[in-house]
Every structure is written in C-alpha cells, then in structure tokens.
Amino acid sequence: MQEMIKVAVDAMGGDNAPAEVIKGVINAVTLRQDIKVYLVGHQDAVKEELAKHSYNGTQIEVIHAEEVIENAEPPVMAIRRKKQSSIVVGMNMVKEGKADAFISAGSSGAVLVGGQVIVGRIKGIERPPLAPLIPTEKGVSLLIDCGANVDARASHLVQFAKMGSIYMEYVMGVKRPKVAIVNIGAEEEKGNALVKETFPLLKNCPDINFVGSIEARDIPKGDADVIVCEAFVGNVVLKLYEGLSSTLMGVIKKGITGSFKSKIGALLVKPSLKNTLKAFDATEYGGAPLLGLNGLVVKTHGSAKAKEITNSVIQCVTFKEQEINEKIRRNIAVSPAEEE
Amino acid sequence: MQEMIKVAVDAMGGDNAPAEVIKGVINAVTLRQDIKVYLVGHQDAVKEELAKHSYNGTQIEVIHAEEVIENAEPPVMAIRRKKQSSIVVGMNMVKEGKADAFISAGSSGAVLVGGQVIVGRIKGIERPPLAPLIPTEKGVSLLIDCGANVDARASHLVQFAKMGSIYMEYVMGVKRPKVAIVNIGAEEEKGNALVKETFPLLKNCPDINFVGSIEARDIPKGDADVIVCEAFVGNVVLKLYEGLSSTLMGVIKKGITGSFKSKIGALLVKPSLKNTLKAFDATEYGGAPLLGLNGLVVKTHGSAKAKEITNSVIQCVTFKEQEINEKIRRNIAVSPAEEE
C-alpha cells in the first residue's frame, strides 16, 4: 500500500474559515487518494461544516483545538500562550511527525513565529524565508524572502537563493531556474551595502543559475524564476504587487463602464478579461511556503478561497514526494555560508 | 516689468531628443510669457529643430554644448570629464545663477551626481533626494527618496519628510500633506532598524503631518501625500509601479482582443479606457525634482514626450514662485537633525 501524505490544515484561519477551508480540503482528497488531511479547529464548527459534504471519511480527521489566534494578537505572545490554538496544535503535529505539513490562512505573524519556534529550522539553516509565488507575464516567480526577519545578512540571502532554486526546480518543475537579486540597476557595482556584499557570493555559487541583478521594473516580465531579496524589500514588492493590481483593476473597471457605449463594450470583453486575469493570479499555485523548517509550513492568503486551499494541499504533496527538505539538508545545510 | 523665470533645458537628453524636448519647450513658452528657456545642446541640431516651429524668439535661447553624456557612461566619470556636455553646461548655469532650474531627460546617474557636485546642496541639507510623483486612486503622491544614495540614516529621512511636505504643500497645493513612512506593518514596533529609528523622530516632528506607517499595498490608494523611504526601497517601489502597470496593461490588452466578440468590445471600451489610464499617469504633473539643492534640478523620464517637458517647465516656475528653496533653508537647514 502506498504511503499516505499527511497534511494538517488550520480549519479556523483566514476570512473564509471554516467553510472555504473545508471545501478546499474535500476537493483535494477527492483529487488524490494518497492524502490524509487533519482538520485542526474547534470540532463543533468543523464537524457541522463537514456534514454538509460527502467525502471519503478515512481521508479526513478532525483534530480539536479549543482556541484561535486572531490577526491582531502579538504573534510571539500568542504562540506562547495559546497552546490550544489551531496554529499551535497543527504545528506541534508537524514537529512530532504526525503530519508532514501544516497549512494556515490565519495570522501571518503567528505562522512565521510558530514555524521557527515550534516546527524549528533544519540544522545549518540560518533563517527560514517565506517565499510566495508572484504572477508574471511568463507564469510565476518565487519571491524569497517576504518574511518577518528584516535586516538580513549576505549569508542568509545565499541560502534563500539555494532553497528557492530547489523549490522552483522540484516543486514547480522549472529546469535550472534563473536566480536574480533585486537591485536598483543592472550593473554589479550598483546597490546598497547588502546587495554589493551578496552579489559576488551568488556569482560564485556553483549550485545555482545566477543571472545577476533584476530591477523591480522587470520582475513582472518574469525575467527570473527565483527573486532574492531581504524581507523588507520582499514585503514591499509583494504588497505593492497586490495593491497596485487591485487598484488598476478598479480604475479600469470604473473607466470602461463610464459611458453607455463602453458599458456595452465592457459586457463583451468581460469573459476574456476574466480568463486573462485568472492567469495573472498566483493563488492558482497554492500558498507561500516557509522554507528551511523540519517539515513544511504553508501560509495562504487570509482571503483564501477553496481553490487556494486545494492547491496548497497538492503543493504539500509535491513537496514531500520530491523530498525537498532532504535536498535542502544535503545541499545547503552543509554549505560554507553557515560556517561564517 | 515682471521678472522672467529662467529655465535651462537639456535639449539632447532622453529617447525623444531633441524633437519632443523642443516641442515641449515651445508649448511652455507659449503658455506663459514670463518664462525664458535656455536650450542646452548641440547648436546645429537644436537650431534645425527650432526652425520647424514658430515661437517668440525672445523667450528661447540656444546655449551650445558640444558633448552628450550617454546613459551607459559611469556618472561620476562622465560629469568630471565631459565639461562640454549638455548636462554639465546646463547645471553650471544654475550654479552661476544664470538659470533658476535645469531639466533633463538624460542619464539619471549623471543628473543625480551633477546635482550634488555641480549645483551643490543647500547648507545643512545632508542629502538631496529625488522625489518623483506617482499616480494613485486619489491623484498623486510624492515618493521620496528614489535617488542614488542608498543606505540612508534616520536624520536623512526626517529631512526628506520635511522637504517633501513643503513641495507637496506649495508646489502641488495639498493642504497639510499627510506624511507616511514605508513599512511592513502598520504598528510602530514593526520595521527594519532604519524605520524603527526614524518612526519616533517623525512622530515628534512638529513641522509635518505625520500619519504613521504605510504598507506598500496602500500606496496606490493614495493614503499618504508624502511617502518617505530610503532610496533602495523607493527605487523598488517606483520601478515596480512602472513595470507592473505596463505588464498589466499588456496582459489586459491581449486578453480583451483575444476573441472576435471581445475584439468588438475592446473597440467600444478603448476611448474610456484611454482617458482613465491618462488620469493614472504621473507624467501629467512633470518630472521628478532633486530637492535640497542650490537651485532646482528636474529629472524627467528618459521616454519623456513634449507634454512631460512642458509640465516640467511649468513645475519649475511654480517652484521658483513659491520660493521652495527659501522655505527649505528656513525650515530644514537649521533643524536639529543636521546637528546629530
């Protein structure tokens, strides 16, 4: 018998929990028979929602968690105090080997802190980066790091580049992924102190396909598969991506429904436009992995719908099947960077 | 007789020089009789182009400059060696008081270096920031700093906030402009070391209307008028703004002309869409000023068309009329920040 891949899912996290989370989980176990999902959350709420669906009962198990960590709570405190929260209970399952991965649409801060404190880093990994996929003209790129650990060192960025490369190659199937560092010019001598220090280290790194600097202007073109930066810059890129896309969509929608003539036009273009924008949506690929941990933690958008949850569960399966953590252990955890 | 405002314009800078530059200048002097423009560039090329238009001859004078600084040249070297370039000649006119302002669509690096080295900083100003206007849902915001001086200190950011405030209030006419610092969360305790150090300084600054942190996601909403950040982050925001807007437009255009039905729709929505996108275009307001100099230097886009040049000339007039540099001297150059 094939080994089941065990994924714990935070049934209480995000704006659309538990309904959309549970819908997404059921879709995932219907798609693949080798997945077992542990729905972590308040059992009354979870069971009530589950009762609305039909599914293979052996593939889903409810794990009771009395508490929920709210977005507004200070993450470190919340992780320490709310031992019975869905995030802490789910992460403990990964730590204890009862689950291979944990997915949450809940508090980003708590997920990041919990990943480091509860699940723990792979030995030799200095920092676990949060690495969302962002949409580009050509598909998606991995933006690494967008986490909470700002003011990174050059050695951290080198590890991000290597982990990102492994992820894009083996989870996303990109052969020899192009790695670039976010910079304010294309030339090697450009940049701030961190980038100037990191650039030659990446250039001399034999394990990755380093293509040099990438200016923010070229990120949406998909010129690189793995986009390396420290978390403050990554956060700015990620949030601006989301904010500007949404603002532009709003502006365009308003613009094309402004006159009667264009209102009719808007009706005609709507289906094509919808399809196009769907292609320009990274949630189609799942959530953002927190890499370099003893297990996998995936953070989805707070606004995640069923589809993003389903894709995140499948993503965990690929992660496990491709033995990403073994590859990270073998290729990075023993690299010279850690010995600095 | 009213005093003429004297603006030197780089006739050789940018992708569309000299034709669009000269067209823009002629529009500007036609709009306002109190402007005198010095067109700095190779006299043969400039005069040949000027001959195609009719204009008030007393308002435009050609200043010969034998050389041109190319985009690819290392800026410091270029400024030092090409004494007869349009950028160096034009900036020397500002330095010597022969012109109030200099506008260039040429090499960003050379304009930034030349501004500091030739025109020079106002006494007490630690760094001259480059401050482009970016489009938002509500109009425009000033993004300060997007220049070449990365790894800024907290005291620099405080001066940026003050100069940006003065610019938005007196050049753009925004009453008590809202000042925010780019951050990765809304709370005061969030951020990297620089932001954490700067936040309380801005909070305790009596001259500005500080509204706290702004996440990159909220920049396009226009939640702040003056967006303070160090140059690396500013550059990433600015370039991503341009790149993502252009990519999304391309994706949408392709999407709505994908089927026959939507092709017809596209024709109907085109005029409204064009108007809307025009509103979402900061070049309507002119170029990016380099603030804190003994005079004014304005950098327009390399791709600037006549309209951006015209608007930049008018912007220089407002800058002079509103005595921005006197306000900066009075309010900032004597502030405690410089005494650190």
Side by side, the strands of the main sheet of chain A go 3-2-1-4-11-10
Order of helices and strands of chain A: EHEHEHHEHEEHEHEEHHEEHH
**How many β strands of chain A by DSSP?**
11
Distance between the termini of chain A: 45 Å
Oligomer: homodimer
Q: What's the mean pLDDT score of chain A?
A: 92
Low-confidence stretches of chain A: none
Biggest interface pair, counts: A-B, 60 and 61 residues
- What structural category arises from helix and sheet content of chain A? alpha/beta
Q: What summary fits the major beta sheet of chain A? A: 6 strands, mixed
Model description:
- The structure is a homodimer of 340-residue chains.
- With 340 residues, chain A is α/β, with parallel strands linked by helices.
- Chain A has eleven helices and eleven strands.
- In chain A, the strands form two sheets. The first copy, chain A, has a six-stranded mixed β-sheet, sandwiched between helices. Chain A has a five-stranded mixed β-sheet with strand order 5-6-9-7-8, with helices on both faces.
- Chains A and B meet through α8 and α9 of A and α8 and α9 of B.
Write the layout of secondary structure elements.
Two copies of one chain form a homodimer.
Chain A: E1 5-10, H1 19-31, E2 35-41, H2 43-50, E3 60-64, H3 75-81, H4 86-95, E4 101-104, H5 108-119, E5 133-136, E6 139-144, H6 154-170, E7 178-183, H7 193-203, E8 209-215, E9 226-228, H8 231-256, H9 260-279, E10 288-290, E11 296-299, H10 306-321, H11 324-331
Parallel strand pairs in A: 1-2, 1-4, 2-3, 4-11, 6-9, 7-8, 7-9
Antiparallel strand pairs in A: 5-6, 10-11
Helix pairs in contact in A: 1-10, 3-5, 4-5, 6-7, 6-11
